[in-house]
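Supplementary Methods. Inverse-folding protocol.

Structures were first reduced to a discrete structure-token string of length 339. This string, shown here, constituted the complete conditioning input.
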């Protein structure tokens, strides 16, 4: 099967497995796993942040960030499509006791004017606006990217209004590949950044939360409470280090693959709309004449898996385990549909 359902389906390569098996480990709850420490140092330095903490999942990284940056009765401002709101099981309310103000961004990209109009006045009738969360790339926005130039004014607004700013950077390396911004320039703008190792980078597990030393100290308490303190986690961190050293540059291949797949899909008579492809995600809408389950099944019969993504919406995600031959096979399969 050629699996486009998500970039989380990748399996570790031989090189990555070798790195994992030969990792030097210790008890990370005691702070004694040197491979975890190396991964944390490496990512903090890459993004110009003071400190970092390895987490089992991107969801946990984000939820810990939100816990660190809010108090109960506060409000988080984010786009309506954002992962922290839509795909983390309502965790913001459960873990942090905070409410959420949803914005209607353009493909999930929010701006200072959208944010500013939803910052509550200082008045005890309202929840206290205390945190803005943005996503880069935006998953539901078809992998849309913020440039640093888009982020800078958001940073200034947050500073002015005394809000924290968190980046859900599950696919930040895809964004950097497209925007040509530098990771090192990100740190100055954010109070927190979460980076996923198990998406496009191809590690089996893991995410890292980046922030100030003070925030990370508190975040370690929160991670413990969430049950995310891991022992010999260096075996997993080694996969992350390997991914950072070997799998960033190649993301452009995934982006190229997404682009040609989108071009081919565009020609199908029953495709109503395809979101512009900026990174490794293709989201398209089928017109009413085409039954979406039928379409997904027809591809599946040819050995190709894609995901449904809401009413008449289909998502393809390219990744490390899809090579050019797989893409050629896919283009052929798409061409077999009536045009
Ligand atoms: C995948 C993803 C996450 C984290 O997901 P986990 O499955 O918990 O690792 C967070 N944000 C976005 C935008 C994602 O796509």
């Amino acid at each position: 099967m050629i699996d486009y359902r998500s970039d989380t389906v990748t399996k570790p390569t031989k090189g990555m497995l070798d790195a994992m098996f030969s990792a030097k480990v210790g008890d990370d709850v005691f702070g004694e796993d040197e491979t975890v420490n190396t991964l944390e140092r490496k990512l903090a330095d890459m993004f110009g942040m003071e400190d970092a903490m390895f987490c089992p999942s991107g969801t946990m990284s984000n939820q810990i960030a939100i816990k660190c940056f809010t108090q109960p009765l506060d409000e988080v401002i984010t786009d309506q499509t954002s992962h922290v709101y839509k795909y983390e099981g309502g965790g913001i309310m459960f873990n942090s006791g905070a409410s959420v103000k949803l914005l209607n961004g353009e493909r999930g990209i929010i701006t200072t004017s959208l944010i500013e109009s939803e910052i509550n006045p200082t008045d005890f009738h309202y929840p206290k606006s205390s945190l803005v969360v943005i996503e880069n790339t935006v998953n539901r926005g078809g992998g849309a990217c913020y440039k640093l130039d888009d982020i800078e004014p958001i940073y200034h607004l947050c500073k002015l209004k005394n809000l924290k700013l968190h980046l859900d950077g599950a696919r930040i390396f895809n964004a950097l590949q497209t925007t040509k911004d530098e990771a090192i320039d990100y740190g100055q703008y954010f109070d927190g950044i979460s980076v996923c190792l198990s998406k496009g980078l191809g590690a089996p597990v893991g995410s890292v939360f980046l922030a100030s030393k003070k925030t990370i100290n508190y975040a370690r308490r929160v991670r413990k409470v969430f049950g995310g303190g891991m022992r010999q986690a260096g075996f997993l961190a080694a996969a992350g280090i390997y991914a950072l050293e070997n799998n960033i540059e190649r993301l452009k291949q995934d982006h190229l693959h997404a682009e040609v797949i989108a071009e081919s899909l565009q020609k199908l008579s029953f495709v109503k709309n395809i979101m512009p492809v900026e990174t490794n995600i293709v989201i398209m809408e089928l017109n009413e004449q085409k039954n979406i389950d039928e379409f997904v099944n027809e591809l599946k019969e040819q050995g190709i898996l894609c995901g449904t993504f809401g009413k008449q919406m289909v998502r393809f995600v390219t990744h490390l385990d899809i090579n050019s031959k797989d893409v050629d096979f896919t283009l052929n399969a798409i061409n077999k549909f009536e045009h």
